[in-house]
Amino acid sequence: MIYFILSVYSLVLASFLHVVGMNYPLRKPFLRRISSECDYCGEKLQLTRMLPIASFVLLKGRTGCCNQPMSWSYFIVEMLSPVFVCILYGVYGFESSFYLYIFIFSLLLILYVSDVYYLHIPNMFLFVYFLSCASYYGYVDLSVLLQHMYQLILGTVVFVGIYLFARKGFGFGDIKLLILLCFLLSLKEAVFIFIIAVFSGAILIGIVTMFQRGMSKKQIPFVPFILFGFLLCPFANDFFWELVLYN
User: Fold this and answer.
1) Quick one: which of 25, 94, 119, 146 has the most CB atoms within 10 Å?
2) Does 223 reside within a domain?
3) Contact at 8 Å (CB) between 226 and 178?
4) DSSP type of residue 69
5) pTM of whole model > 0.85?
6) Cβ-based neighbours of 241, under 8 Å, separated by 6 or more
7) Domain membership flag for residue 247
8) Under 8 Å between Cβ of 123 and 176
9) 37: which strand partners?
10) What does the pLDDT read at residue 73?
11) Within a domain: residue 243?
């Protein structure tokens, strides 16, 4: 029963976060919207066309009003959320780590959508999540906050150094996000996420380039690969560093 409840809540949350990621960069309101509308023709959507996952499948990936192809980002975000949340619960239960990972996951879902659609990472979300987590760490224990500030400083040195060394490979928004992850988690976890993101991105881009010429010259969003690295982090980070450092 708990898995069903978590799935429902995570689907609703994912759907809302997708709306936030699509609308905030365009400065469109998303909290006071009376109803959702079609991305193409602007027609107000009926409730039956807004059901997470089900609407995408039943409508065969096309809008019900103007028969235009729906973005796969809807399906990806709504599929990822319940799977990740339920696995996370199975591993951590309702420990503090569970809530922290969900908190960061919500940020990455927003930035995933924003980066895929607009190649833009809004500073406002980075600041809000930093301030929220800093307040929590400070409330728990000042020493905890200081430890995470130390991770933030180390992360700034590491990732700004990477940015200066490989300037054309990453946008500065990606670097700011990785630095924030150092604060929210730790430098080790952020580096793990970065390594997975780089390798998975290189593999996918290499495969796509084989079939689409000129793909390597296009600007490609990096947040989806950061999100992929983060999804593995709660389950593989410790094993990865044990493998690297002690073998």
Assistant:
1) 25
2) yes
3) yes
4) B
5) yes
6) 188, 192
7) no
8) yes
9) 44
10) 75
11) no
